[in-house]
Design a protein that fits this description.
The structure holds 2 protein chains of 2 kinds.
Chain A: H1 2-28, E1 30-36, H2 41-54, E2 57-62, H3 66-74, E3 80-83, H4 89-95, E4 97-112, E5 122-123, H5 125-133, H6 142-147, E6 159-163, H7 168-180, H8 182-186, E7 200-202, H9 204-214, E8 218-223, H10 224-229, E9 236-238, E10 244-245, H11 249-257, E11 282-290, H12 298-314, H13 316-321, E12 325-326, H14 329-342
Parallel strand pairs in A: 1-2, 1-3, 5-9, 6-7, 6-8
Antiparallel strand pairs in A: 3-11, 4-8, 4-11, 4-12, 9-10
Chain B: H1 2-11, H2 24-62, H3 65-68, E1 72-73, E2 81-82, H4 85-116, H5 119-132, H6 137-165, H7 184-208, H8 212-220, H9 225-254, H10 257-263, H11 280-287, H12 296-322, H13 324-327
Antiparallel strand pairs in B: 1-2
Helix pairs in contact in B: 2-12, 4-7, 4-9, 4-11, 5-7, 6-7, 6-10, 7-9, 7-10, 8-9, 9-12, 11-12
Classes of the chains: A alpha/beta, B mainly alpha.
Amino acid sequence: MNRRTLLLGTGAALAAPIVLTHRVALAQQATITGAGATFPRPVYERWGTQAREAAGIQLNYQSIGSGGGINQITNRTVDFGATDAPLSADQLRERNLLQFPTVMGSVVLIVNLPGVADNALRLTPELVADIFLGKITRWSDARIAETNREIRIPNLPISVAYRADASGTTSVFTNYLSRVSTEWQQGPGAGTSVRWPVGNGARGNEGVSNAIRNTPGAIGYTENAYATVNRLITTQLRNKAGRFVQPVMASFQAAAAQADWNRPGFAADLIDLNGENTWPIVAPTFILLPTNPVADRVAGSRATMRFFDWAFRSGAQAATSLEYIPVPGTVHDAVRAAWAEQVRGPGGERLWPVAG
Amino acid sequence: MQQTVAATSTQAPPTGERIRASSLGDRIFEGLCTGAGYLVLLTLGAIIVTLFVGALPAFERYGAGFIWSTEWNPVEDHREAYGGAVAIFGTIVSAILAIVFAVPVAFGIAFYLTELAPSWLKRPVGTAIELLAAVPSIIYGMWGLFVVVPFVQMNIQLTFGEALAALPLVGFIFETTNFAGTSLFTASLVLAIMILPFIAATMRDVFEQVPPVYKESAYGVGATRWEVVSKVVIPYTRISVVGGIMLGLGRALGETMAVTFVIGNANRMPNSIFDASTTIASVVAMEFPESLAGSLKQSSLFALGFLLFLISFIVLATSRWLLRSRLK
């Protein structure tokens, strides 16, 4: 009996400081949960690691795919959703969501052609569309040779590889194909997964790049970040201005500079823009935030806004190092204004700016 | 005399107070066990109901046509249309081809283990086969992608492909423009290796059940070993062997990860076994994460899941029925 009291006493004495420090930690650290797009996962994770120290916010991001993210935020099981394809104004209103962009990314074409160097192959939009439509079946095709007089292309059959899992990358790429080819627009169309006329599907960016590495004569598409990190062989592409551009940061930024963000839900369209040096396949990725968070999610919504506010101010460098393009500062201010205007607590009070 | 009486009295049943079977602990235990038993039925029923309810919008929209429509177009506008024929065809053909590849090898293994192998080797080989069944399917998928796919591409398609395509009558089965190595054929090959242990183990077990007296009589009248196996063992075990094959077929039908890696995931009707195709399990795994709750696409994926459930159920029920004499 005596011993037990002693033990209990010691336990309480030991536990007291733990409880105290824990409470302090809770006050500093807010945990937010997000789910959705796989495309921006690397940059969100990097921001999450940095923000834990810098802003005291712990981010738990599950890259389950844009569709899953939209489902989860519609059911309010997470603090924010993330999607690559923007929702329309109607969809946003119906689900009581606010949409804003975080970063932009680009999609590049990757090939496996023995003897052809990185960024050496020149492709026109017509060639890309016809290859993915299955109308050009060999690399020795006269039309390919015509735009590539300086390099020797091996005479191989063309093997098309695409993402088998429904993905934002596919959505961006098929949007581009629909924009540059009427036949593609009326045939397969644009979406997170489409009815591909030819080729093989592989799972994820890693699946596509593996399929291409294994098959001489293969062509596919992937996110630029993935292609850069894995040193895949990319191609040049002719843009709307008629110039062949290389998939490098400068040409992505040239595209980003042309974007028109004054659209409902900040749904800027960066596909096939005008401009001398613009890379034609660039797209923003978006966050979905409830405009009417339920009472127990108010703190999460506040922390989410604090997190992205921090990311807008200090996350540009991390984004650029991962080959993403930060959105311009004017957009940041517009997003903050939208937070203040649209996001309301259960009592109708503004949740942004966060007091203190 | 006295002693005998004493002895008989000790043998009489004890008449003391017994703990009655209806005491609380027993009743709780009985309740828990019964509950566990019903839970299985409930879970199975709940899965069927969930799948069917989820699939209802697709079935209402397309009716039975869902089963034979080859149109699978998830683009969300006037083009949107869903039909399961390609996935159903891919599922059934890849599973049947896998059986075609696996059964002869499994028969060889079972024949070797029961008739030919020296007794010290029977156990290690038998264990190795059972271990093969324990390899997770994702491992088969990776191995398939990094080893089998390049092998099929380089050593089968590029080497024999044209010769096979030039064959009269059956050449069209091999004629293709797909040189990526991921194809219906590769998927069947990987599946065959995955289901091999199930079929081989069942075959070995049923071969061993043949009463020795039958085989010894056959040997006694001068039958060769091959005659004993083909005239005595196989006729005796025929139905159980088919049951074992159906068990393998059941696994091949539902396999997801390994197939997804190597089949090429193309929702087009394949013209040859070297063309890319897809299976129900693989379509569901690929498309589900991006499908919006309540959309026609998600409902169609549920419908595919429901059909796969039905197909697997029929196959497994058939195998249980054929194996019923052995499983008693």
